[in-house]
Design goal:
Largest sheet: 5 strands, antiparallel
Strand order of the largest sheet: 3-4-5-6-7
Oligomer: single chain
Number of helices: 0
Helix content: under 10%
């Protein structure tokens, strides 16, 4: 680079220049492809590292370039899928050359975009402009594929496709004078257009030598038709809408038939019946319809009706049956009946009154209650009479009877042999395994005032499977449980083989010093204190078996295998 002047710097060499400003160039500066950095953080620059192309880098990214192609100037974005936008000082986009293949005018601006083509004169102040109006959604107009013919106009197919078409000026029959005037066409519509704002279309004529307005189509009321006289249609003619042309049918006898709803939009509207309007149906705003006086709404004949018999009584009369069909029939107040009430569905009360006697609760009866199916109660079942009985079975052969201040008596009432009462405790478990509880009976005093241990289960009997039950085994033990200062725990077990076993080794006694068994009937008597205790004589322990012989009693030492016999003396 050749520097002509370095502002404010003299007497220095190139080797000592660390930061210089180019104050003036006396001749062309050759950068020779070197990047020209423009900002302090060195991420905005101009370079010509490609021959015949200038590249502009902004914020460290190469954004666009200038080049030429066959003499044409090429401005090219260097980031794919990005647009070229021309913006106003305030940031509004005025021109958007979009990567999507379109040019946007005033895209995002506050005013409508416009294209202006100026006149071919020296001043060029007049123009033809194309501007987008205020629209609610975007649409595209597709130009014709040909230029059309002279006198043609441009039309759309309603979907944005434009084409050229010819204006038809045919008017087949237009006659004026003092005779009849005919406006006719063999095809197409006849349009009468009052184009002035809120202007009417008025049809007039002469009636009884008087100029009379027959029909006014009110332009200020969206075309409301005002007839000077009534509307008369042909016999059996129809009146309707564009979507339902026979909504109102009038027969030759004057009868009116409605195929759609009849709406009386007036609050307090009255629908009258009879030559003298003796029966009326009156609308009460926000309330409903009222049938006048004590008139009846009859069905089939006069014996079936609904009637407001007075200001406080409503009668519903039928010769046989009144059927109410609904998901819910809500009766507010008392319901009184003198006959038999039969329900094919569910009789339900949502009242939550508790039953404490035979005269309160949500459902009361002064007689018996017959129930053919199961009874399911969500709370207590109370039998309030002493000696009340619950019967079981088709012939009530099993009874559960209350004994006043005593308890319950379970009885089989049959008098024949082999009719004992049999109380079976069953489990629903389908796979009984070892130590599974089959059934249990427990005793407890939960209301004991001292609480703690006193309210725990104090005694129980439970049946426990000794092993997996199968088609050939149901071995079960009966465990007797008692409590001392804890919930009832196992103390004795009666095994499936009939053995009576203590819950733990050397823990339970058979009898006591004050309560002993009278006689003990047994086979061999095995004595063993080697595991837990010593004798009171010499402090040793042993294991002995006493056995019976024909003439002697024998004692066997199980520790050393020695055998002895008792010295027996006959007593006569």
């Amino acid at each position: 680079m050749a520097l002509s002047t370095i502002s404010g710097t003299t007497g220095i060499t190139d080797a000592t220049i660390t930061s210089a400003k180019l104050a003036d160039f006396a001749a062309a500066v050759d950068l020779n492809g070197v990047e020209l950095i423009l900002d302090a953080d060195q991420d905005t620059s101009i370079t010509a590292d490609t021959d015949d192309r200038i590249d502009f880098k902004i914020a460290g990214v190469e954004h666009f370039s200038f080049s030429n192609s066959s003499g044409d100037t090429i401005i090219k974005p260097m980031v794919d899928a990005k647009d070229i936008k021309f913006q106003q000082f305030d940031g509004r986009t005025l021109l958007d050359i979009n990567d999507g293949g379109f040019v946007g005018i005033a895209n995002g601006a506050t005013g409508a975009g416009a294209i202006r083509i100026f006149e071919d004169t020296d001043n060029g102040s007049n123009y033809v402009g194309l501007t987008a109006g205020s629209i609610s959604s975007s649409f595209t107009l597709t130009l014709p594929t040909a230029d059309g013919s002279s006198g043609q106009f441009l039309k759309t197919d309603g979907s944005g496709a434009l084409s050229f078409d010819t204006v038809s000026s045919a008017a087949d029959d237009l006659t004026t004078g003092d005779a009849a005037v005919t406006l006719a066409t063999s095809a197409g519509n006849i349009t009468i257009d009052a184009q002035g704002n809120d202007t009417d279309i008025i049809l007039k004529g002469t009636d009884g030598s008087s100029d009379t307005t027959f029909l006014t189509i009110d332009g200020s009321a969206a075309g409301e038709a005002i007839f000077n006289a009534g509307i008369v249609i042909a016999d059996a003619g129809n009146i309707g809408s564009a979507s339902d042309k026979d909504a109102i049918a009038i027969g030759s006898d004057g009868d009116v038939t409605l195929t759609q709803d009849l709406e009386l939009k007036h609050d307090g509207a009255i629908l009258s019946f009879g030559a003298d309007d003796d029966t009326t149906l009156t609308h009460t705003d926000g309330t409903g319809l009222t049938l006048n006086s004590t008139n009846k709404l009859c069905f089939n004949d006069a014996t079936q009706f609904i009637q407001g018999a007075s200001g406080t009584v409503l009668d519903i009369a039928a010769t046989d049956e009144i059927e109410l069909t609904a998901t819910l029939i809500d009766v507010v107040g008392n319901l009184a009946g003198s006959g038999t009430g039969t329900f094919a569905g569910i009789l339900k009360t949502d009242d939550t009154t508790e039953a404490t006697s035979t005269t309160d609760g949500s459902l009361q009866t002064d007689g018996g209650l017959s129930v053919a199916k199961d009874i399911v109660a969500g709370d207590d079942i109370k039998l309030l009479s002493d000696a009340s009985v619950i019967h079981f079975g088709a012939n009530s052969e099993v009874t559960l009877t209350h004994s006043h201040d005593a308890g319950l008596i379970l009885k089989h009432t049959a008098t024949a042999d082999d009719k004992p009462i049999n109380l079976i405790l069953q489990t629903g478990e389908t796979d009984m395994a070892a130590n599974d509880v089959i059934g249990k009976i427990s005793w407890q005093a939960p209301d004991e005032g001292t609480g703690t241990d006193a309210i725990l289960v104090s005694a129980a009997i439970q049946a426990i499977a000794e092993g997996d039950h199968s088609s050939s085994s149901n071995a079960t033990s009966l465990v007797f449980m008692t409590g001392a200062s804890e919930a009832a725990a196992a103390k004795l077990t009666l095994t499936s083989a009939g053995h009576l076993l203590p819950a733990s080794d050397d823990a339970q006694d058979l009898g006591s010093s004050s309560l002993q068994f009278r006689d003990v009937y047994t086979g061999d008597l095995n004595l063993n204190n080697t595991r837990h205790r010593k004798n009171e004589v010499d402090g040793t322990s042993g294991s002995w078996t006493i056995q019976e012989g024909d003439d002697n009693l024998y004692i066997l030492n199980r520790l050393n295998g020695k055998k002895y016999k008792f010295n027996l003396t006959e007593v006569k």
